[in-house]
Write a structure and sequence with these properties.
491 residues; Beta-Lactamase; Helix Hairpins; Heat Shock Protein 90; 3 domains; 14% strand; disordered C terminus
């Protein structure tokens, strides 16, 4: 945008400077031409008067002396022609075509007293002519060769001065245009950066109020709007978290009462199985909503941190990827065995692959992906693959189940979305959403795609630990985290 604005202002300034220079040079050319014309016409009239006197008295010597003196002084030739003689001074050749034309026109009483427009380059001589005699009879003609070299030299000097001054003026105008453009566009660039930051993080730093008054007012309005948007998002996240947390206590109390009623009523599972199942679904949904709210808050904090600048990694954000995968495989073995599902691991030869990720959140993501694979691909083969590059570590969970269509893959990380093909399988539609938000919170991504020949492939791409790898502790990672499930009243 700055280049476009400078281009427009630069073009306008060039047109202004060119127009101004043209006006000055045109005026200078006219002034020099008029001075030259007035001076030479005065000389032409004087010689025509002297020639008329000489023709009347037949005393040509004085005229010839005056002509020679003038030619020596100004370097310009003079020709006086009468019926019986022709006088020439200087280097003027009477046989030249333009001289003959001037004599012919003057003999017809058509005087040539207007000089052509003066140019810095071009012919260095011009002709003026007139006749002398009475009103009824032309006695002779006078032709004066005008030397325009001196006037042209002055005009060339004027051109050089005007061009130099115009160049300096253009540089000054461009410098001023650049300063004005920067003054106007700097707050626009800040506003643009602020809007991008607001779009990516949901918040933004206060925009300095400078530039034109209209942009200062816009900066104030944008800052106010950003504060309102940030407050609204925070209130929304807090409302979801508080609501799901507060609902856990009455749901837990309701489960306790149902369990007590079941004990008093005796062995009648049919009467309580539906209620117990629905309570389980409600508890699962509340847990999922609470974890999603916390995961989105973590994702928001991670995105905001990246917008502000790089944050030095700490030991609490370092996890051994291979150790985490092995532990989650151990936890999922019982569920996989119960559904007849086979688990396998293919790892990089480097046993110390550290990722810049919270250990508990890495375990949470792996657990969700394994749980999904076991749930939706029972009796199949689930493969975990661990690969590393210089900057990232890829953890891939793939199965040979039915998989999802491309349209379903595009919607799979949407809150509460469930595939129409899996409506009969118990779930909340929040698992992949939580994994996606946690991956974003830790600077990574979740990539979903089809597995060959069929099935689903979920790939976690996480940043590799920037520091030197150290041998990991064999103790299990701490389960304390912002995503730990809240304790219910019956825990």
């Amino acid at each position: 945008m700055r280049v476009r604005v400078l281009g427009v202002l630069g073009l306008l300034s060039v047109l202004l400077v060119v127009g101004l220079a043209y006006s000055i040079l045109s005026a200078g050319s006219r002034a020099l031409g008029q001075d030259l014309e007035i001076n030479r016409l005065a000389s032409l009239n004087r010689f025509s008067q002297v020639a008329a006197d000489a023709a009347a008295t037949h005393e040509w010597a004085g005229l010839k002396t005056a002509m020679d003196t003038y030619s020596k002084l100004y370097g310009e030739g003079i020709l006086v022609h009468t019926q019986d003689r022709t006088l020439v001074s200087g280097v003027l050749d009477p046989a030249r075509a333009d001289v003959r034309d001037a004599l012919f026109n003057a003999s017809l009483n058509l005087s040539l007293t207007k000089l052509p427009a003066l140019r810095p380059v071009g012919p260095g001589t011009m002709l003026v002519s007139t006749s002398f005699g009475s009103a009824n009879q032309v006695m002779g003609e006078v032709v004066l060769e005008v030397d325009a070299g001196t006037a042209q030299a002055k005009l060339r000097t004027l051109w050089i001065l005007v061009i130099a001054a115009g160049a300096l003026l253009e540089v000054g105008l461009l410098f001023g245009a650049a300063r004005v453009t920067r003054w106007v566009l700097r707050p626009i660039h800040r506003l643009n950066s602020a809007v991008v930051e607001l779009e990516e993080t949901g918040s933004m730093r206060r925009v300095p109020e400078d530039g034109p008054p209209e942009l200062r007012e816009l900066s104030r309005s944008l800052t106010t709007m950003a504060a309102a948007v940030k407050g609204s998002l925070e209130q929304q996240r807090q409302l979801i978290a508080d609501t799901s947390h507060q609902l856990r206590n009455p749901v837990a109390a309701l489960r306790l009462r149902v369990d007590l009623l079941q004990l008093k009523a005796g062995p009648e599972p049919e009467a309580f199985s539906a209620v117990t199942a629905e309570l389980g679904r409600v508890e699962e949904l509340l847990d999922g909503v609470l974890m999603l709210a916390t995961a989105e808050n973590r994702a928001f904090e991670g995105t905001a941190g990246k917008a502000v600048g790089p944050v030095p990694a700490s030991e609490h954000d370092r996890a051994n990827a291979l150790l985490a995968v092995q532990e989650e495989l151990d936890r999922a073995t019982a569920a996989a065995t119960g559904s007849g599902t086979k688990l396998s691991l293919q790892s990089s030869p480097d046993a110390e692959l550290y990722v810049a990720c919270s250990p508990f959140e890495l375990a949470q993501m792996l657990g969700e992906l394994l749980e999904n694979a076991i749930k939706y691909a029972p009796g199949g083969h689930i493969r975990l693959t661990l690969k590393a590059s210089a900057a990232t570590v890829d953890i891939e969970v793939s199965d040979d189940g039915p998989g999802m269509s491309p349209d379903d893959l595009a919607l799979s990380t949407t809150r509460f979305w469930r595939s129409p093909d899996h409506r009969d399988i118990r779930g909340t539609g929040l698992g992949l959403t939580i994994v996606d938000r946690l991956a974003e919170a830790n600077g990574g991504t979740l990539v979903l795609g089809p597995s060959e020949p069929h099935g689903l492939r979920a790939r976690l791409v996480l940043p590799r630990w920037p520091g030197p790898d150290r041998r990991p502790s064999l103790s299990r990672p701490s389960r304390r985290s912002s995503l730990s499930r809240p304790r219910s009243s019956d825990d």
